Amino acid sequence: MLLVILLNFSCKSQSKKINGVSFVASRDTISTQHITPVLKAQSNYVALMPFGFIKNLATPTITHNTKRQWFGETENGLLQYAKRFQKENVRIMVKPHIWVWRGEFTGNIKMDSEENWQVLEDSYTAFILTYAKAAASLNAEIFCIGTELEQFVVNRPAFWQQLIQKIRAVYKGKLTYAANWDEYSRVPFRKKSIILV
Predict the structure, then answer these.
(1) d(CA 168, CA 150)
(2) Which residues contact 115 (CB under 8 A, 6 or more apart)?
(3) How, if at all, do strands 51-54 and 63-64 pair?
């Protein structure tokens, strides 16, 4: 009898498991018809993914939050999507992504000069802080500071340390970084209260 009580207490004391889905951006606003499948899957979290774009692996400028993008890839799209999900008590992870034209792997983004690294750092800072501020305004539970950016992370660790501090200045929730499966051990900030996924 005591064992059953302890097991019951032990299970109830655990925090609720994250049962999340990645919700891919659409060209339009979302409605109940888009949210119902997420609820039927018993998801309690959604990862919403605004996008920034670069032309190739050595291009330092990130284009983002423009009228040429699909609505769901922009700040306004993120805000609309998140508010609709929050009405259904679905929690939010904001997970900005970079897309390299022609589908090249973002883990290979690497600049060929110090000048281009500086441009990339400035551009990435503007991109990621746009969505960190949006995540803060939404009270999103989790914010992802980057997704599969191995060469950028490994080659510019000081930048990432400073960026984390800038993000923490505007967003007070949990931070994560989405490492590729073979990247985890090389992420220099993995011990800085950053959850790696």
Answers:
(1) 21
(2) none
(3) antiparallel
pTM of the model: 0.88
- pLDDT tens per residue, range 97-155: 999 998 999 999 999 999 999 999 999 999 999 999 999 999 999 999 999 999 999 99
**In this structure, what is the dihedral angle of CA atoms 91, 183, 106, 141, given to the nearest 10 degrees?**
10
Instruction: List the Cα angle 149/112/132 in 5-degree steps.
Output: 35
Phi then psi dihedrals of residue 131, to 5 deg: -85, -25
Secondary element (H or E) of residue 94: strand 91-94
Phi, psi of 95 (to 5 degrees): -130, 75
DSSP state of 128: H
